[in-house]
Every structure is written in structure tokens, then in C-alpha cells.
Amino acid sequence: MYHLLIVDDNKINLSAAKNALSNNYKITAVTSGAQALQFLQNRTCDLILLDINMPEMDGFEVMAKIKSNPDRCDIPIIFLTSDNDPQTESRCLEAGAMDFISKPFVQNVMLSRISRTLELEALRRDLSGQLEARTMHIKYIQEMMVIGMATMVESRDLSTGGHIKRTSMVMKIFAEKLAREQELLTKDFLDMVIRAAPMHDLGKIAVDDRVLRKQGKFTPEEYAEMKKHSAEGSRIVKQILEGVEEEVFVNIAANVAHYHHEKWDGSGYPDGLSGEEIPIEARIMALADVFDALVSKRCYKEAYSYDNAFSIIESSVGTHFDPQLGKIFLKCRPELEALYNMVSMEQE
Predict the structure, then answer these.
(1) Which residue in 54, 68, 73, 64 sits closest to 7, CA to CA?
(2) CA 20 to 30 Å from 236, out of 3, 246, 251, 264?
(3) pLDDT per position as a tens digit, 160-215
(4) Which residues on adjacent β-strands are paired with residue 50?
């Protein structure tokens, strides 16, 4: 049974409305805007019948407060009014009301308008749910395509097998620690950084095989070509995501790809940024990227021990890495060791 909240300072009108509706709906009746807002603090309803002319707080003020609450703003509101002025009716609709009902109430008219409003709201919620599900599905397909592209790139790079999967898991561990220790980094932001992590080396798709697949150290010319993957990755990420993803996520993903090889002291590439000039999402990615490179076997080196890897990270805090982020990353050692031990066992 639908639950209606009726707000009217006139007890006679309130009683008439309750009598007209109580056989069809669950009713909560209050005599002021303040009481209505108090009710909505901890409870909700399916529709609000709201009188316009009330002392202390009129219906428009009450409605504005309800609409400002993100948890209650979608409750449909029908205004109750004895004012037949077309301007008042227009103001009701402009304020966001679904309809208005004139006093004195005509029961059949009131029931009809309430029923229609509830049906429209049910349809809106159903369509909204379908749209959200379809949007999530499209995003999932797109994300799988991007990860597929990144995996394809990685399969060409003989030195980084499994890097995408491992760095993504490192980022999840690091993000959990950051969420607890950095109040300014919101969960939404950190979730987007985690989603962006698999895209950080997409630019390698534009690097020639003779460089990407070389087993051994690069010549200066080859290294210069390899370094182009950062800016190229940013371009590719934007091309893939723009128009489909929210702008904020596109920027985060592009920054992760573009700047994850920059260093705190300005000695990195491609732009030689330093300190907080480097987007924080790229500073976060840099730690995960380098750590995995240290503890993983590459064609040009053996995997470093955990002691050696964490010692290198610690000694690079303030030069390669953001001082604050680096210190927090070092606190992730128990979880990171457990992760890589598990990965190592799965590969045996």
C-alpha cells in the first residue's frame, strides 16, 4: 500500500483529506512544514500532499528543503491550494510539483490525480532503473574492451607479463590505505583511479615491436621512442572514453597514462613536471607501477626481494615519489607481500 504524507495546518482540511484517502492509502498527517521535515529525517513516503498557505513556513519553502535533500528529492509532491489564480498554479509546477489539487476537495478528482501521479512516478523509476542498468552494461563492455586492448599491448611486451593485473591489485590495496589516511581523497576518486590503472600503458600500442619486444636494455634512441608511450597513451585514452564516460573519469585516466613516469624532483618524463604539478592520480600510479617492476622478473633482471624493493621505494620518497603518498605506500607492505606471495603460488 502506498504511503502518503499530508501537510496542512487546517485540521478540518486535514481530516477531510484523510477520510477521502484512508481506504486506499496509508496516511501520515502533520500540521506544519517543520513537522513534515522532521518526519522525513528518518522516514520516507511515496507521495506528499503539501498545503501552500501555512504559517511560519509555506509550501514552497517546505518543498525547497525537501528537494535539497538528495535522499528525499525524488518524492513526488502535489500542492494543495484554495487559490485559483493561474499564476499560483504556474508557480507550483515551475517549483517542481507533479500536480496541484484545489480545495475544497472533490474526492474522485483527488483520488484520480494521486493515482496518476503515483503511476507516473512508478514509470519514471522503472525507466530510470532500466537506463542505469543499460549504462552500467555499456560501461562494463567498454571497460572489458579497454582491458582487452591493454592485455594485447602487454602480450607484445616481453618484459611485463601480468603487469596490468598485478598493478591493478596493488592499486586496490593502496587505495584502501589512502582512504583511511587521506581525508581529501574521496572513495569516488580512488575508485576512478583504480578503474584507470589498467590503461596506464595503453600508449605502448604505438611503440614499434623492435623496441617493445627487445630483450635487454635500450639504447638512448630506443629509450626515447619508448618514452613516447606516455603522451600517446593519454591521447588514446581520451579517444576511447570521451563521449561515453564522465569527463572527470576521462581526465583521471588520461592523467594516469600521461604522467605516471613523472618524478617528484622533476627528473621524470614526458614533461619534466615536479611536485604537485604532477596530477595526484599519476603520483599514486607511479608507486604501484614501480613496485611491480621491482618485485617482478623482467627479461633484463631478476625479481628483487621485498626488503630490497621496499628499501628502494623508501630511499626514493621525496625524489621519485610524493613524500606523503610514499610513506603511506610503505605501510601497505604486509598486504602487498601477501598479494605477491599468492600470485607467485598461483603461477607455480
Answers:
(1) 54
(2) 264
(3) 557 888 899 999 999 999 999 888 899 999 999 999 998 898 888 888 878 777 77
(4) 7, 79
Residue 199: closest CA among 151, 247, 156? 151
DSSP E strand stretches across the chain? 3-7, 26-30, 47-51, 77-81, 99-102
**Catalytic residue annotation:** 204
Q: Nine-digit cell at 199?
A: 590503461
Place of cell 576518486: 189
Task: Average the pLDDT over 140-155 and give the result.
Answer: 69
Torsion of the alpha carbons at 282, 288, 289 and 294, rounded to the nearest 10: 150
Strands 47-51 and 26-30, sheet pairing: unpaired
Q: Are 26 and 35 in contact (CB under 8 A)?
A: no
Tally of CB atoms within 10 A around 273: 18
Measured between alpha carbons, how far apart are the two ends of the chain, in Å?
59
DSSP per position, 27-82: EEEESSHHHHHHHHHH---SEEEEES--SSS-HHHHHHHHHT-TTTTTS-EEEEES
Q: Rounded to whole angstroms, what are the CA distances from 27 to 3, 4, 99, 192, 314?
A: 6, 5, 19, 43, 64
- If you count DSSP H runs as helices and E runs as strands, how many of each does the chain have, helices first? 15, 5
Place of cell 493561474: 86
Please give the C-alpha separations between residue 246 and each of 233, 250, 251, 253, in angstroms, as whole numbers.
Answer: 18, 6, 9, 11
| Cβ-proximal residues to 82 (8 Å cutoff; 6+ apart), any chain | 53, 102, 103, 104
For the whole model, what pTM was predicted?
Answer: 0.63
CA 324 – CA 331 distance, rounded (Å): 11
Residue type, 166: R
- Phi first, then psi: give them for residue 55, nearest 5 degrees: -70, 160
Q: Which pLDDT tens digit goes with each residue over 58-99?
A: 888 999 999 888 888 889 999 888 777 667 767 777 777 888
> Cell numbers at residue 219, please?
639504447
Give which of 152, 176, 179, 177 is closest to 164, Cα–Cα.
Answer: 152
What is the rounded CA–CA span in Å between residue 315 and residue 307? 12
| Contact criterion met (CB below 8 Å) for 79 and 59 | yes
